[in-house]
Amino acid sequence: MAVYTDKKIKEWAKDNVLPYNEKLVNPASIDLTLGNKLKRPMWYWRYPISRFIAWHLRNLLKVKYWDTGIEFTTYTLWPGEFVLCHSLEWTNIPTDAIALLFSKSSTGRTGLEHLHAGYGDPEFKGEWTWELENVAPWPIQLVAGKALMQVALIGTMGVPEKLYGQVGRYQNQRGPQEECPEKTL
Question: Which of 59, 103, 138, 165 could form a disulfide with 114 if both were Cys (CB 3.0 to 4.6 A apart)?
Fold first, then answer.
């Protein structure tokens, strides 16, 4: 197992990161930029509620968790606000590698937290969904096209028997993809 360095990232990315911008390649990662769509929880989930009320909202009233999506060029993320965003780039992870998604250090220093579901199996194809929360006491501007995250690729010791394309639920996703949290209620 070895981490891809800039030369190997460039070889991979020219055909497997769309759109590809060589300026986003770092010594051992490639930056990903923010897409222009986000989803946020419906207004009634943005206030503290009891598990009892949450259960009734979901199971008896069948309310939705997420809005239908917002397109933006800039979006103000308020303290404590949580949204799902996506990478502008569509990636195709090699069959003999995994991908790890991290916040750029400059992103973390603003108080923008990625709630780290940042693992890509071999052969994952699609835009990355980012779970972002403002943990700072000030508003943060999300700007479509700005580099916020980075992906590091690590070569595996072979090709898995089953690739993500055979077993994954989010293959070829576009835009932010939500998961219904009803099992947590």
Answer: 103
SS3 12: helix
pLDDT of 115 reads: 83
Cis omega (within 30 of 0) on the bond before 19? Answer: yes
pLDDT score at 106: 94
Quote the number of domains for the chain.
Answer: 1
In-domain check, residue 17: yes
Position with higher pLDDT, 64 vs 183: 64
> Tokens in use for 155?
């070569």
Residue corresponding to tokens 């259960």: 55
Q: Return d(Cα 153, Cα 3) in angstroms, integer.
A: 6
Which domain covers residue 137, as residue numbers?
A: 6-177
Burial 14-24 (b: 16+ CB within 10 A, else e): eebbeebeeeb
- Residues 44, 46, 50, CA angle at the centre, nearest 5°? 75
Here the CATH number for the domain that contains residue 168 is: 2.70.40.10
Residue 147 lies in a domain: yes
- Which letter, b or e, does each residue of 25-56 get, where b requires 16 or more Cβ atoms within 10 Å of its Cβ? beeebbbbbbbbbbbbbeeebeeeeeeeebee
In this structure, is residue 1 part of a structural domain? no
Are the beta carbons of 12 and 94 closer than 8 angstroms?
Answer: yes
Q: Which tokens go with 179? A: 């998961």
